[in-house]
Amino acid sequence: MGWSERGKREMQGMLLPVIVCVCFIASSLLFLVQMIVKSEEENITDLYNAANQTRTALLKQIEGDWQTLEGLSVSLQSLANIRTDELMEILADVNDKNTFIRMGYADASGQGEMVDLAGNIETISIAEAAFFQRAMEGEKSISMTFEDSNSAGGYVNYFAARVLNSDGETEGVLCAVHATNVLRSIIDMPLLKNSGYSDILNESGDFVIISKPSMAETALSSNQEAITERIREEDSGSFTVKDEKGRKYMVTVLPLIEGQWYQVSTVPVAVLRSSYIETARGIMAIILAACVLFIWLISSQRRMAAENQKTLMKLAYSDSLTGMRNYDGFKKDAEQFLAEQELSACLIWYADFKNFKFINDVLGYEEGDRLLSMVAEYLKMVESPDCMSCRIAADNFTGIMRCREDEGLARGHKEILDYLKQSGMENFPFLEIPLGVYRLKESDRGQTVDVLVNYANMAHKTAKEKNGSAFVYYDDEIRKKTLEDSTLEAEAEPAIRNGEFRLYMQPKVDIQNGNRICGAEVLVRWQNPRLGLIPPGRFIPLFEKSDLIIKLDRYMFEQACIWLKSYLDGGGRPVNIAVNVSKVGIFQPGFVEYYAAVKKKYGIPDHMLELEFTENILAVDTELFSDLVIKLRKEGFLCSLDDFGSGYSSLNLLKDLPVDALKLDILFFRKSRDVRRERIVVSNFINMAKQLNITTIAEGVEEEDTVEFLQNADCDVIQGYIFAKPMPKEEFEAMLGGTDHLAMNHNEQGN
User: What stretches pass through the bilayer (predicted)?
Assistant: First the structure.
């Protein structure tokens, strides 16, 4: 039984190579057939070209003879009353200068005389001759081949052209006799490998001139009806005929004298095919040898493939870094797993590390890889028939398990954190693993693994927004939020067109000059007809996933320019207006040109508009960012770097960044365990920026003692709830009109 199954598998394994071999033979035979067909077509073309060369030589000879006759007939027209003896003298003289053997003249009744090269004159009567009758009707006429009565064994053809009188009426016919051997010498020249010859037939298919070496006379005679049909149809194409012995000939019919003579060229088909038949046999032998070799190679390869199959499967479905299952392998195994399970007892989880990029950047990629390998080691250790997992990419992991009780998942979540701490990661207390979970339902049967994992990932994104190593189940709220996100994205462009995005401004206060209002940062709020006023934190992260953020950036910039122009035209004092630009927007083609054009359109003076860039832009391309800032400054813009110190920036970058201002991140002003050390760092940073002629702006300030400290540290500007919260543009304009200075809000705090 075991041998039978193995034999069946081996037979099945050989089936594909056999099919491939058969297909190879079939395609090779098809190629051979196509080659033969092409060769046949080339043979037809070659025969036609060779026959046409013979025809050209014949026509050259015939046309030359006719031109002689026609020229002489025109000359005779002017000699209306010439005597017969005088005419014979003229013809004898002309005959000495051409290839004719006799020349003569017959009147309209067909009676006349001819003179030969020796001057001998004979009387002729040709009234019944077909060539005479055609000539009398004005045709170029040439006769059949006749035995020459004046030369034993000789054959001749008569050429005839009519002679007109002075009134244009037919007077008679000028005749010339041509030795048939002159034309036969042309058609005796062999065609195509010295195996083909030409013959001349009349319109009825009768032979006029037969080439001496022709071997196709019997074939042409036995196919006279078919050849006559071709002549009648004036078909110059090639066709095949057989002689009485069954030998095939390829035939081409070409007209020589329309309605009179036709050149029929023939070549034995066997001769034409001899070259490519040998080639075809050789190719067929090579094909058969190749098939044998192919089958042998396939058999050898199958043996090797059987040995390497497990290795190949491992490479295809395992992660190169951790050695655990990759996502492709997971999908394959999970489909089979789910098909065998009660879905309501199963769940899918999705997890990663918070701030994993920080681990790579600060601790190094080797440490990051070590952490990933430890997670994989734990997941492989706990894998069982009831659960499986994989690494998707980077620090993203997913898994599926049979688990009816939620406590089992919570316990497993805690165990992996404990495992990491006990495996050499105890020095990293900040490690957090947010977990998203999707509990399957029977209605999910038939869904793809990708869709189910995506549900868990949606929950995972919510878990990442929470503190610590939270885990969140996918529920209707998450689904609702996802749908709401999609709705907001769909409503965004119409909202921009309808002006639903409102201009808000948060004043910036010069704390070194009596808390004077020196400008404002432009902020955005969405006045949605359906949801009311939407804060930016709800829609900005969504827009940053697409080019919607670019459209919003440019819309808000233009709205800021419109307001600033209106404010200045109304007599307002100059203030600095800062507008945010997203990371996506700055690298768009034509970025500088667009912003410069809008500034110019509204006539905004130089150094009043400030473009704010978040400092995470430095992670993309610091050099390119610096080049763009230089171009913007040439166009009259001020440029500032927002959230400086929050992640990607370092003091080392300050020497290379041509910015006008730095906004210190709010993290600088959160109370730490050692306020003195914190303030030493901030003071020295502000002092260094001063020496580089960079304005310092502290944002998010909420405490009076922080304001006092910053003032003493020589910080230039504060933007925060301690002075004013973001407000509609109308309120900000009213504030500017009412006062130049702001007092601190003792009870106002933002969030």
Answer: 14-33, 282-299
CA distance 114 to 174: 10
**Assigned token pair, 715:** 């910080």
Structure tokens, 246: 């069954």
The more confident residue out of 114 and 76 is: 114
- Closest Cα to residue 536, out of 509, 506, 562? 506
Give the contacts of 371 (CB within 8 A, at least 6 positions apart).
353, 359, 395, 420, 425, 431
DSSP code for 343:
G
Identity of the highest mean pLDDT range in 96-100, 144-148, 477-481, 731-735: 731-735
Torsion angle (degrees, nearest 10) of CA 721, 723, 727, 733: -170
| The pair of three-digit structure tokens given for residue 340, joined into one six-digit string | 């065998």
| 439 strand-pairing partners | 347
Give residue-wise pLDDT tens across range 168-217: 788 889 898 888 888 888 888 888 777 778 888 888 778 888 876 665 56
On average, the pLDDT of the chain sits at: 84
Would the CA dihedral through 271, 273, 279, 281 be positive or negative? negative
- Helix H or strand E encompassing 178: strand 170-179
Name every residue whose Cβ is closer than 8 Å to that of residue 115 and which is 6 or more positions away in sequence.
Answer: 88, 91, 92, 95, 102, 103, 104, 121
Beta bridge partners, 401, equal 347, 387
Q: Rounded to whole angstroms, how far apart are CA atoms 396 and 299?
A: 42
Query: What residue has token string 């948060």?
Result: 506
Q: What would the mean pLDDT of 248-259 be, rounded to a whole number?
A: 82
Same-fold call for 327-472 versus 486-643+717-738: no
Q: Is 629 left (phi over 0), alpha (psi -120 to 50) or beta?
A: alpha
327-472 CATH: 3.30.70.270
Residue closest to 398 by CA, chosen among 350, 432, 359, 435: 350
Pairing of strands 532-534, 516-528: antiparallel
The tokens describing 219, both together, are 């074939």
DSSP string for 381-401: HH-BTTEEEEEEETTEEEEEE
Which CATH homologous superfamily contains domain 486-643+717-738?
A: EAL domain (3.20.20.450)
- The helix/strand/coil state of 570 is coil
Task: Write out pLDDT tens, residues 425-449.
Answer: 655 656 789 999 999 999 999 999 9
Report, as an integer, the average pLDDT of 252-271: 82
Q: Where are the domains of the chain?
A: 327-472, 486-643+717-738
The residue behind tokens 């933007």 is: 719
* Angstrom distance (rounded) from CA 467 to CA 48: 91
